[in-house]
Amino acid sequence: MVKINPVLEKLTRIFPEGGRGDFWRLDMNENPEGLPVDFVAEVRAKITPAFLATYPEPDRLLAALAAYHHLPEDRFALTDGSEMAIKHVFEVFALPGTQVVTVTPSFAMYEVYCEMFGVTHQGVPLGEDLAFPTEAFLGAIGQDTSLVVLLSPNNPAGGLLPRDEVERIIRKAAEHDAVVVIDEAYHYFCEVSYLDLAERYDNVVVLRTFSKLFSLAGLRLGYAVSRPEIVTYLNRMRPTFEANSVALLFGEALLRRLDIIEALIQTEKEGRLYLMEALTRAGYEPRHDHGGNFVLVKPEKCPREVEAALKERKILVKTYGDKHLLQDYIRISTGSRRVMEKFVAAFLDIDQR
Fold first, then answer.
1. C-alpha–C-alpha distance, residues 347 and 34, integer Å
2. Average pLDDT of 85-94?
């Protein structure tokens, strides 16, 4: 019998189902319609056989990120999606025998990486009203803590922390030499960012992704922002060529088209506001809570039944298992008003007939 890392013997992974291409995908917080067709065609025209035969060169995207954020290039580590940035943070800072503090529920991969790297996951439950448990969270940070994770906004529950509370958590973590990860995958949808704290404090890493607002989930592109010392360690963990050439090309082109970025923000906002208003008029109490590109709503029928009925109509949404804090909700990824109108018509027909 070959030798196997014993951690993997107990590690359970759940991967998304395939075959989603023919559906309206409102289950994984993607942009259901994607980038403008003409923009995609313009960038795609630059992909020649020679381009594909050449190893990736990240310099142009790093320069574009530096200009976009008004920061030096040595503040950025490019990764294969922000999920891989999380993995590199664990590889560098989650030392054996330590603990990682998050709220629960949270993005599932943080708990997966705790199991993968053999560290203790200290999950602090959100309040029944989904409020962030600041005092309990601060109390969970101790001498054994190596990583502290904040999602802003949180996924799947939504919600933002006031800046003074974020800084209290950063300072408490610093007392125990712990790194604070601020995962900003959804920050564009709430106009709040703590990116500047990665410059002010030497124990902060901010994570960003091109998968959500930027609509490049299929290309797997993300990045970490931090002080140069931390970025150096993250880069030492990365493969020589991590972000692929096509992802780098599209990422750079998009960062130089602020008009497209602004249009994406406005399109999602218009669709979300329509969704919230339509559900409210129909008697529901939808929740956004300064969240990302998703809305939570309690259907009148069993959420799993509604999910199955919507799937029959080629619409995918997210539900949660029994004993989950969000077990009574469905989560709808938001998109344009056109997409939201289609969802509302199907949802009301299923849930109120």
1. 23
2. 96
Give residue 19's pLDDT band: very low, low, confident or very high (50, 70, 90).
confident
Integer Cα distance of 104 and 120 in angstroms: 14
Nearest to 210 by CA among 244, 247, 161: 247
What is the three-class DSSP state of 294?
Answer: strand
The residue with tokens 């692929």 is 244
Cβ 125 vs Cβ 133: under 8 Å:
yes
Assess contact for 161 and 150: CB atoms under 8 A: yes
C-beta separation of 319 from 303 below 8 A: yes
Identify the pLDDT of residue 309. Answer: 97
Is the model's pLDDT at 227 over the cut of 80? yes
Q: Could you give the CA distance from residue 289 to residue 88 in angstroms, rounded to a whole number?
A: 30
CA trace torsion 250, 255, 260, 265 (10° rounding): 110
Query: Containing H/E element for 310?
Result: helix 303-312
DSSP structure string for 200-230: H-TTEEEEEESSSTT--GGG--EEEE--HHH
Provide the β-strand partners of residue 147: 100, 179
Token pair for 285:
């109490």
The one-letter code for the residue type at 59 is D
Residue 241, number of CB atoms within 10 A of its CB: 12
Question: What letter represents residue 38's amino acid?
Answer: D
E-only strand ranges, 190-340: 204-209, 222-225, 294-297, 315-316, 318-319, 330-333
The more confidently predicted of residues 20 and 68 is 68
Tell the burial category of 48 from Cβ atoms under 10 Å away from its Cβ (0-12, 13-18, 19+). exposed
Yes or no: say if 119 and 257 are a contact pair by the CB < 8 Å rule: no
22 to 95, 105, 161, 316: CA distances (angstroms)? 43, 30, 37, 10
Tokens matching residue 53: 């035969």
**Residues shown for the chain:** 353
Residue 134: pLDDT band with limits 50, 70, 90: very high
